[in-house]
């Protein structure tokens, strides 16, 4: 199958990309690493798109510190997250999540911005973003805005990004002393999207749990978080079953995913040294 | 179509050490350019959505999926396919080990396997068998059952590191 696209343009700056999106009048589609988009084009699930290639925009690359937050540019690739020293020190959850994404050859081109914008409910980064209480930065014709990650993911492959906007970065509060980050998932084969997964941040003795593969979007698991804060692992597992709303499909049933989530949570509690 | 958007792209890149210039449809992915425009049929297409690894090749020193890379995104890049890697002799030891261990049967997956294996060996010295399996999990083989592929890669990694052959393992399944 050959990708049938409406046209292709290379954006040189963010402003240029926004102008091109406007020019494309609703048919515009951002192309970053292409690791989800080109697959969709090949499968013919997306046709007539006017592709706006942002891969050459230098301002969207790289990771930097801004006060007490870490700013990760949208074009930062999965393979960069694994080895970037700032990410390793200040947002280790992403460094731990990146090797779980797909395979080496895909990690060499796919970007964090693409993964967040695509909002696959089984993807790792969106759940990491809500566990970290991150913010998503969007830039459009009306300027720049910042949305808390928990409000950014609005449904199955749906986000709060408006049609004319570009996701430029994600910002994360710098990890504090003693903060712990753990991510675990269940997959059929290494590199597959997860059947179920949990990303957990322990900050000041409080827990934040982001679930993936367990709903139509990444979920903040508040019941399980409250129980885990009390050191009640059994209670957290019980509450987690209510916090999540997993799908049943050819890969796994909802009840299996729910069970798997509980198993992952017990293992994470053990990783974190929470009393059983 | 508006002025800024084009449906054909003038492309300059280096393929197997040779500069090529061609005009391609904007939606064309790298494997189609190689196979259909340049006649380099060594890169295979299985699934065309990133899952099977048959199209894996080397772009600017890294393994990538040819089927998920639009040629338009490769302006100025350096591409190495199985043809160029073979002629250059850089994976001769891997190819020899694949043959010796029967790590290929129909050969459909082999160009992609070799590209992925090359990237692993160059990045990771002597990887464990577990690391080899993990790394190669993005390359499907429907014939060999993988054991021989892992053997071949392990053998070459050890040879390159100056180690001797590992002991023949009888019935090992790791
Ligand atoms: C075989 C395979 C296995 C995979 N397994 C996993 C996995 O286990 N976990 C996982 O998380 N992902 C997985 N992926 C997807 C991978 O992570 C992609 O790299 C990622 O989802 C998209 O990033 P990209 O840069 O390639 O985006 P693209 O494919 O270029 O774009 C994806 C979508 O996001 C939009 N977009 C991209 N960047 C921006 C931006 N800056 N602003 C606005 N919109 C933007 C595009 O318009 C498009 O709709 C897998 C992919 C494959 C092919
Ligand atoms: S053809 Fe590219 S991964 Fe299958
Ligand atoms: S040798 Fe036939 S697919 Fe691998």
Automatic annotation (TrEMBL), chain A:
The keyword Flavoprotein applies. Keywords: FAD, Flavoprotein, Oxidoreductase. It comes from Jiella pelagia. Pfam families: CO_deh_flav_C, FAD_binding_5. Residues 1-177 form the FAD-binding PCMH-type domain. It comes from the Bacteria. The keyword Oxidoreductase applies. Signal peptide: none annotated. This is Xanthine dehydrogenase family protein subunit M.
TrEMBL record, chain B:
It comes from the Bacteria. It holds the Pfam family Fer2_2. Coiled coil: none annotated. Keywords: 2Fe-2S, Iron, Iron-sulfur, Metal-binding, Oxidoreductase. InterPro entries: 2Fe-2S-bd, 2Fe-2S-bd_dom_sf, 2Fe-2S_ferredoxin-like_sf, 2Fe-2S_ferredoxin-type, 2Fe2S_fd_BS, Beta-grasp_dom_sf, Diverse_Oxidoreductases. This is (2Fe-2S)-binding protein. Residues 9-85 form the 2Fe-2S ferredoxin-type domain. The keyword Iron applies. CDD domains: fer2. SUPFAM superfamilies: 2Fe-2S ferredoxin-like, CO dehydrogenase ISP C-domain like. PROSITE patterns: 2FE2S_FER_1, 2FE2S_FER_2. It comes from Jiella pelagia.
């Amino acid at each position: 199958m050959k990708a049938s696209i409406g046209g292709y343009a290379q954006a040189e700056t963010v402003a240029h990309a926004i102008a091109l999106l406007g020019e494309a009048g609703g048919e515009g589609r951002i192309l970053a690493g292409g690791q989800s988009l080109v697959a969709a084009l090949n499968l013919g699930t997306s046709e007539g798109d006017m592709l706006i290639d942002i891969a050459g925009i230098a301002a969207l690359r790289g990771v930097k510190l801004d006060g007490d937050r870490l700013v990760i540019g949208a074009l930062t690739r999965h393979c960069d997250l694994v080895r970037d020293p700032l990410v390793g020190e200040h947002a280790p959850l992403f460094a731990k999540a990146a090797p779980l994404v797909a395979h080496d050859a895909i990690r060499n081109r796919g970007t964090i911005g693409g993964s967040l914008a695509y909002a696959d409910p089984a993807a790792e980064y969106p759940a990491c973003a809500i566990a970290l209480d991150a913010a998503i930065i969007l830039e459009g014709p009306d300027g720049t805005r910042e949305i808390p990650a928990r409000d950014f993911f609005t449904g199955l492959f749906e986000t709060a990004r408006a049609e004319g906007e570009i996701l430029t970065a994600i910002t994360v509060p710098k990890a504090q002393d003693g903060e712990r980050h753990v991510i675990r998932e269940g997959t059929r084969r290494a590199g597959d999207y997860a059947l179920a997964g949990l990303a957990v941040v322990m900050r000041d003795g409080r827990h934040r749990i982001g679930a993936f593969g367990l709903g139509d979007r990444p979920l903040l698991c508040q019941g399980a978080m409250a129980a885990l804060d009390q050191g009640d692992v059994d209670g957290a597992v019980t509450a987690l079953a209510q916090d999540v709303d997993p799908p049943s499909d050819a890969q796994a049933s909802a009840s299996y995913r729910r069970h798997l989530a509980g198993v992952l949570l017990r293992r994470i509690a053990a990783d974190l040294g929470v009393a059983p | 179509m508006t002025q800024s958007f084009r449906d054909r792209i003038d492309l300059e890149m280096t393929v197997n050490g040779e500069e090529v210039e061609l005009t391609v449809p904007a939606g064309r992915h790298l494997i189609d350019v190689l196979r259909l425009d340049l006649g380099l049929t060594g890169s295979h297409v299985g699934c065309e959505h990133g899952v099977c690894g048959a199209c894996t090749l080397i772009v600017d020193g890294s393994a990538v999926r040819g089927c998920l890379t639009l040629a338009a995104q490769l302006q100025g890049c350096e591409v190495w396919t199985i043809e160029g890697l073979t002629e250059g002799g850089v994976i001769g030891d891997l190819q020899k080990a694949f043959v010796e261990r029967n790590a290929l049967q129909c050969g459909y997956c082999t160009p992609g396997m070799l590209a992925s294996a090359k990237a692993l060996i160059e990045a990771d010295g002597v990887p464990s068998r577990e690391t080899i399996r993990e790394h190669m999990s993005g390359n499907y083989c429907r014939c060999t059952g993988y054991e021989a592929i892992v053997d071949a890669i392990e053998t070459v990694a050890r040879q390159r590191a100056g180690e001797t052959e590992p002991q023949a393992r009888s019935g090992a399944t790791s």
